[in-house]
Amino acid sequence: MRSLLSFAVLVLATVVSAISTTGDRLLVVLDDAAEQAGYSKFLGDLKSRGFKLSFETPKSESLSLFHLGERAYDHVILFPSKLKGLGPKLTGQLLLQFLNADGNILVALGSDTAASTALVSLLTELDIHLPAERTGLVVDHFNYDSVSAPDKHDVLLLPPPGSHRPGVKDIFSAGAPSDQVIAFARGVGATLGAGELLTPLLRAPSTAYSYDPSTQAETVDDPFAAGEQLSLISTFQSRTSARFTLVGSAELLADKWFDTEVQKPGAAKAVKTFNREFAKRVAGWTFQEIGVLRVNWIEHHLNEVGGSNETNPKIYRIKNEVTYAISVSEYAWDAWTAFSVPPNDVFQLEFSMLSPFHRLTLQPDAAHSTPDAAAFTASFKLPDQHGIFNFKINYKRPFFTNVEEKNTVSVRHMAHDEWPRSFVISGAWPWIAGIGATVAGWLGFCALWMYSAPVSGKKTQ
Amino acid sequence: MSADLLQAVADVGKGKGTRSLLRVVILCLIAGAAIASRLFSVIRFESIIHEFDPWFNFRATKYLVANGFYNFWDWFDDRTWHPLGRVTGGTLYPGLMVTSGVIYHALRALNIPVDIRNICVLLAPAFSGLTAFASYLLTNEMTTTPSAGLLAAIFMGIAPGYISRSVAGSYDNEAIAIFLLVFTFYLWIKALKQGSMLWGAMCALFYGYMVASWGGYAFITCLLPLHSFVLICMGRYSTRLYVAYTTWYALGTLASMQIPFVGFLPVKTSEHMPALGIFGFLQLLGFLDYVRSAIPGRQFQTFLWLFAGGIFGVGLGGLVLATSLGFIAPWSGRFYSLWDTGYAKIHIPIIASVSEHQPTAWPAFFFDLNMLIWLFPAGVYLCFQQLADEHVFIVVYALFGSYFAGVMVRLMLTLTPVVCVAAAMAMSSLFDTYLVAKAPKPEDHVADEASEGAAKKAAKTGLKSTSRPVVGVYSYFAKGTIVSGLTLYLLLFVLHCTWVTSNAYSSPSVVLASKMPDGSQHIIDDYREAYQWLRQNTADDAKIMSWWDYGYQIGGMADRPTLVDNNTWNNTHIATVGKAMSSREEVSYPIMRQHEVDYVLVVFGGLLGYSGDDINKFLWMVRIAEGIWPDEVKERDFFTPRGEYRVDGEASEAMKNSLMYKMSYYNYNMLFPPGQAQDRVRGVRLPEVGPTLSTLDEAFTSENWIIRIFKVKDLDRFGRDHGQAMAFERGIKKKAPRKKGPRTLRVD
Amino acid sequence: MRWLPAFVSALVASTTGVLAVKKSTEERFASFHTKALASSAVKLSDASFRELTAAPRDYSVAVLLNALDSRYGCQMCREFQPEWDLLAKSWTKGDKKAESRLIFATLDFSDGRDVFMSFGLQTAPVVFYYPPTTGPHAAKSRDPIRYDFVNGFQSAEQMHAWIARNTPNRPSPPVQRPINYLKWIVTTTILLGGGTSAFVAWPYVLPVLQNRNVWAAVSLISILVFTSGQMFNHIRKVPYVGVDQRGGLTYFAAGFQNQFGMETQFVAAMYGVLAFSAMCLAIKVPRIADPKVQNVAVFAWAGILFFMYSFLLSIFRVKNAGYPFALPPFM
């Protein structure tokens, strides 16, 4: 059965190859069609990856995220727009509804245009906060591009983000040469709430800060935010793994920064930006091409000699030996690959009723792994407590889709004939002996009684 | 002339054969009457299981029939007490289910395909016929007159006190237990009178069956030792008693220990200790008796008897000591609350909350027993006439039965048999006196007047009233009056029983009947409507949270897992539900998530004026929750400062914010013009704006709003709390955090 | 809003406290604690109450607001007062060094009307626990915690549990009930005396014990008592007679599920009469040798029986409206 499953998986994988796991209908929203020339390379990359792009302007009649209550598109890119509100077709509620229907949204902002109110209300719901005046400018007087912004310092040059924290897979800058830099030009920074669904993808360097050029032209008394708190690219992943990305600077996706030379102040020579690859990976992540996990199959069975080898039984007995196995794949651009747990992270199984009775680390199980699916397994003894238990997988990591699996089984008590027999228990021997003695004694007594007939009185004669 | 006529009539019954034939016919008719009078509910409504517990028994029976005995024996029920589950096989009295299972298979074997439901519905009436027969036998052991038994049988057959628990459809343990109770007593008397081991063994056998059927077996376990003890105290120790009791105790205890639910209780708990103690004491007496017969000598014997008394005292003291040291479990709560009547109210709110554990007011006695209640003392007095062992039994039973019945309404059931027997004895003695054709000749007895003195002496120990010899009644007119009077009472009794049965005890509380203005009957079927909805519209393993009263019904009718049910074995779990119901949504939601609750079911009578709804039971939920979390749930908070329990605008904050209140009155005011919302149970006007729910969605509300079902929302997908989410849906923009104070920095 | 009065009183308290006696919380505690050591629970008046509960305080106060005076006819007050004193005594004695920094006090209504007013108290007794506002055990809210006796009389132990719950991680000395020597002596003497008298009087007692009539009477009476709902009275503590709207006495409670003390006795009597007449008809009458007397007896008893039964039915109709059956003369 397992082999059959993995075969089905293979078929599936081939079918959906080379595009996102959640579909290929991509809507690009621009103020007017002319702008798309500026992002031709970025959009071209998307097209080449098999996305079917359709372009709309916020005001257009034909634009609608939903058709007959179903998503009309799988992904949306919103480029910066001059409009104050994005019109009736793109209200905050609609966008949230789109996310709620497991669509993915990538939003690009720019410091020259204020974010539209619809966007701001959406962002607030997601606990992402822009400056009060809906725009701002991030500057850094230490890491700026001395070529293009020698005096304004509003083109930041940042190293690739690297791993978000120990134990989280680095999927955005893996394999990038260390001297690569990302050019973040004239961008807006956001601050994030404390929610675990939010993750800052690209943080500002500790020397950067954000201010409002229009009002705070000469003196910046109270900057909106500064340093690491300032998130230049913010990601949000809903509980159902719908993805939302806020790119602070639309220019990061623009052609003109894809292959220009930039130079840090004091750097020996100008280097080519990492933007193109980075933009591709950000879009790829947002549109579920990378960092997507899938559970292929889960199975648990009795692990006792002489026990039934039924797969996924509904009921176990207390203190049974049980084996649990799960197979997980990770999607990488165009194919499912075996999922490998990042270094110094663990993939855990809970066996819980109300609260976990066991929390075990799942071990990779080479026997059942295939090139495109890694199997993990754990064997343990059920607790001495009957009830309705859950095998629970609750693996939620930044930039990975949430893996939340629950398999319910009942754990029953000992049946009346599953206890050891009395003569096996040494403690019971005295009582068994007692019974024997009583029986024997009674029989003996009866015999005595019967055979000791009263002597017929001969002497009396 | 009339004498001759009566004579002629009497002659018909002279022949032994005719008599016994008549007897059989009469008994059959009685059984028929007993069964027929229990069929009101089936005729009025339909063949349906009643009330609460029967639904569990029915479900268990279906499981037994479907999966066979051994699976039933080891049944682990994972659809109740979620997520704990219940070891059902080991925590129930299997007698009832097994009985109907056997009947079912027997009928199958005879190629009579009967639906198991109908067997369950009709089991109680069928057994009531047997009960009538058993009480006939028991009464015949008491008196020599043949009529007493038949009277007892008909009394037992139609006395409302017994009908209340045995109408068709009330498929509860009592249905068969009462028959077993009476029959066990009959066998005990038989064994005692004949001192026969065979009858003793039979008694033990049926005692075992009784233990397998009903928790009330403890009544027998306490009554038989008591009877024996009284006999001993009266100096009536005899080998008959020895044989009967010893046989019964040894075999009966073994039999009772075969039931998993009972297990080792008979040697561990206090309510079984009297039986054990008397057993030991009887051995001692037997020994002493032997010694006495062997060794002559007055002083020695007196010494022996003192010795026996001493041993008894010591044994009693030892028992008390062992209990206080904890070797023997003290009286379990339910039993203990029978003695210390204030105990349950303080310590075990769950027990106190059950309506049938309330004390009995006198109208209930009259309602259930009508004229028997005043014939009863007369019958007991008759027992004192010739006070044989079996009469002592009746007296003892009468005393204790009436005490228990006074303390707990449901124990009226155990009183009814003895009332019927005693009343029958009184009635029959009346008939025997006044229904005889031959009248005494006055002159015969003038002579006796002289010899009375002698008679007095003879009946010294007897009752004063029976000191003089029986003469008989002279005038036919007197006889006629009395007999007609008695007949009138009997007819009245029959009318009463029928009336009570049809009006009070024949409604299956699952289906409610109400009278329309034009007098026609209107059936209110909300319960089944709602349970059917659950069955058809929810996932097979959707967990339903409700107050425990409805657990069995949900399990039986809707076939969905429940958190708590009427088998209230886990106070903490019930208290958890109570807490969820009586706390604010913010507190309840995590509890419901943790217990994987999918739907919450509440019963609301406000629209119909159905008083048995959850708001009226609410205080019990609060109390039970307070018992476990005295700091989080406080009964006081649910009263207004002036100490009233209100649900209208004046209601206390805790009340208004409690989940139960919100669920009950959610959207209720939509039914009325603004400000007119009326609660017809509490009889109050509700506030203008109804409560709002953010963590629950209204899923279903039955026709008359009696049952309301709410779905527990999933966590918000965007990590907001439900209040916010709803606000956003309504288009209210969330405020960006003000820049006041220190910024909340993100650390990761 | 329930705490509003509490706030008021707290404010008042603080001001008066300041005006009246400029004592530091330390001194106040010391003085009151010495008082507590002297007596069991400190008797308070309006002023001393305000002083004691004035904020800031680094100690906690448990004060019982009581109404002992018989005029208020507060049964529970009188029952609870000794328990409270006992608790206070054993607690204060329990930690002489006052590590729990808890002072037990009592304020009777007659001495502290104003306080009662300021709390807007409708009922007594009520226990207030004032947490410390400063110091190591300081509580977040300075409002007192209120304990109403919703479920009836509380023993010293139960009250102790409640206070101990409110004073965590502090010593809470257990309640020590004094041994009641008198009780012991009395019981022993009674036992001994009873034993001896029994031994002496045995020959005279024995016939009584063995007399069937006695036993018959005893058992019949107890049966009547039980079947007429005496246990219900005992458990539910029902009044002996009721009072109707117009202030007149009613002997029969309306409704199926309740009853009065007198009512049950009356019913028991009726059952008794009915049973007795039945017994007479069954046993006595046929033993009367004289035909005339017998006739009279028969009709007399039959009449009583009939009369009583119809009366019983009529009373039952009072309890259970809509009961259709009746016998003349009480239709």
TrEMBL record, chain A:
UniProt KW keywords: Endoplasmic reticulum, Membrane, Signal, Transmembrane, Transmembrane helix
Segments forming domain OST48 N-terminal: 25-286
An individual GO BP term: protein N-linked glycosylation via asparagine
Source superkingdom: Eukaryota
UniProt-listed InterPro entries: DDOST_48_kDa_subunit, OST48_MD, OST48_N
Pfam families in alphabetical order: OST48_MD, OST48_N
Function: Subunit of the oligosaccharyl transferase (OST) complex that catalyzes the initial transfer of a defined glycan (Glc(3)Man(9)GlcNAc(2) in eukaryotes) from the lipid carrier dolichol-pyrophosphate to an asparagine residue within an Asn-X-Ser/Thr consensus motif in nascent polypeptide chains, the first step in protein N-glycosylation. N-glycosylation occurs cotranslationally and the complex associates with the Sec61 complex at the channel-forming translocon complex that mediates protein translocation across the endoplasmic reticulum (ER).
Protein name (database record): Dolichyl-diphosphooligosaccharide--protein glycosyltransferase subunit WBP1
Organism: Schizothecium vesticola
From TrEMBL, chain B:
GO biological process: post-translational protein modification; protein N-linked glycosylation via asparagine
InterPro entries: Oligo_trans_STT3 (IPR003674), STT3-PglB_core (IPR048999), STT3_N (IPR048307)
Pathway it works in: Protein modification; protein glycosylation
Keywords: Endoplasmic reticulum, Glycoprotein, Glycosyltransferase, Magnesium, Manganese, Membrane, Metal-binding, Transferase, Transmembrane, Transmembrane helix
Domain STT3/PglB/AglB core span(s) in chain numbering: 544-593
GO cellular component: oligosaccharyltransferase complex
Enzyme nomenclature, EC number: 2.4.99.18
Record's keyword annotation contains Transferase: yes
GO molecular function, one term: metal ion binding
Topological relation to the membrane, as annotated: Multi-pass membrane protein
Domain Oligosaccharyl transferase STT3 N-terminal: from-to ranges: 22-422
Classification via Pfam families: STT3 (PF02516), STT3-PglB_core (PF21436)
Cofactor(s) it depends on: Mn(2+); Mg(2+)
Alphabetized PANTHER family for the sequence: DOLICHYL-DIPHOSPHOOLIGOSACCHARIDE--PROTEIN GLYCOSYLTRANSFERASE SUBUNIT, DOLICHYL-DIPHOSPHOOLIGOSACCHARIDE--PROTEIN GLYCOSYLTRANSFERASE SUBUNIT STT3B
Function description: Catalytic subunit of the oligosaccharyl transferase (OST) complex that catalyzes the initial transfer of a defined glycan (Glc(3)Man(9)GlcNAc(2) in eukaryotes) from the lipid carrier dolichol-pyrophosphate to an asparagine residue within an Asn-X-Ser/Thr consensus motif in nascent polypeptide chains, the first step in protein N-glycosylation. N-glycosylation occurs cotranslationally and the complex associates with the Sec61 complex at the channel-forming translocon complex that mediates protein translocation across the endoplasmic reticulum (ER).
Entry similarity comment: Belongs to the STT3 family.
Name of the featured protein: Dolichyl-diphosphooligosaccharide--protein glycosyltransferase subunit STT3
Organism from which the protein derives: Schizothecium vesticola
UniProtKB/TrEMBL annotation, chain C:
SUPFAM superfamilies from the UniProt entry: Thioredoxin-like
Source organism per UniProt: Schizothecium vesticola
Similarity-based family: Belongs to the OST3/OST6 family.
GO BP annotations, alphabetical order: protein N-linked glycosylation via asparagine
Localization per record: Endoplasmic reticulum membrane
Primary localisation category: endoplasmic reticulum
Full protein name: Oligosaccharyl transferase subunit
UniProt function note: Subunit of the oligosaccharyl transferase (OST) complex that catalyzes the initial transfer of a defined glycan (Glc(3)Man(9)GlcNAc(2) in eukaryotes) from the lipid carrier dolichol-pyrophosphate to an asparagine residue within an Asn-X-Ser/Thr consensus motif in nascent polypeptide chains, the first step in protein N-glycosylation. N-glycosylation occurs cotranslationally and the complex associates with the Sec61 complex at the channel-forming translocon complex that mediates protein translocation across the endoplasmic reticulum (ER). All subunits are required for a maximal enzyme activity.
Source organism superkingdom: Eukaryota
Transmembrane segments: 181-202, 214-232, 266-283, 295-316
Gene3D superfamilies named among the record's database cross-references: Glutaredoxin (3.40.30.10)
